[in-house]
Structure formats: structure tokens, C-alpha cells
Specification:
2 helices, single chain, alpha+beta, 4-stranded antiparallel β-sheet, extended
Length: 120
């Protein structure tokens, strides 16, 4: 009986260790950028979701800008864009990757407040 309990505890400890190792390995891979290759000449400027699995993207190839449509199975050239047509004022730094928690919370509170006013 005691040996069964010890075996169960050993399995649980090993399981927790494997979970922790997986968590930290995933975070390390994400930070290192090993999954995504970096390019000096190709950048994704902005993505706008228009339907499930359907996006419009603005990309930069060298010094030129293009708009493309992206679906699950297809990429379609839409138009070429001039830099003067684009608004970079609200653009977040790609190195950031995330908004501060306080800003996300404020946005959610603003949405909830507007929804309550409409319902009244």
C-alpha cells in the first residue's frame, strides 16, 4: 500500500516537472524568435481580420508597400500603396508585442460602459 502511494507521488512530481520544463522551454523559444525568421527586407505592417480565416494585410517589401488578401488557401495581390497613404501614428512597436494590462483593462471597461448606456 505504501509503495503504491510513493509511486503515485513520484509520478505526480515527474508530471509537474515535465509541465514546468515545457512551459519554460516554450517561453524561451518564443523570446528567442527561433520559430519566426527575421528579414530586413520584408515586414508585416498591419493585419485586419474581415472574416474567419480572411485577412487584409499591408506588407513592406524593401521600400515599397503592398496590400494583400490572405485566406486559408490563397494570397491575393490587392494594390500597391504609397507611404503617404499610410498612417503610422497609431502603430505599435513590433518589438513590444503586447499592450500594457492597464490599457487593455481600460478598453474593456470603456466597452462595457458604452454597452450599458445603450441598453438603458
Amino acid at each position: 500500500m505504501l509503495s503504491n502511494i510513493l509511486q503515485l507521488l513520484a509520478v505526480i512530481v515527474v508530471f509537474v516537472l515535465v509541465l514546468a520544463a515545457t512551459y519554460y522551454a516554450t517561453k524561451w523559444i518564443a523570446k528567442s524568435g527561433a520559430i519566426q525568421s527575421q528579414s530586413a527586407n520584408i515586414r508585416l505592417i498591419e493585419t485586419f481580420k474581415i472574416a474567419p480565416n480572411k485577412y487584409i494585410q499591408i506588407i513592406q517589401l524593401g521600400t515599397r508597400y503592398y496590400s494583400i488578401g490572405v485566406t486559408k488557401d490563397n494570397i491575393t495581390f490587392l494594390t500597391s500603396l504609397e507611404e503617404e497613404q499610410l498612417d503610422f501614428s497609431g502603430k505599435k512597436d513590433p518589438a513590444d508585442g503586447q499592450l500594457p494590462f492597464k490599457e487593455i483593462l481600460n478598453r474593456l471597461n470603456n466597452r462595457a460602459g458604452k454597452k450599458e448606456k445603450r441598453e438603458k
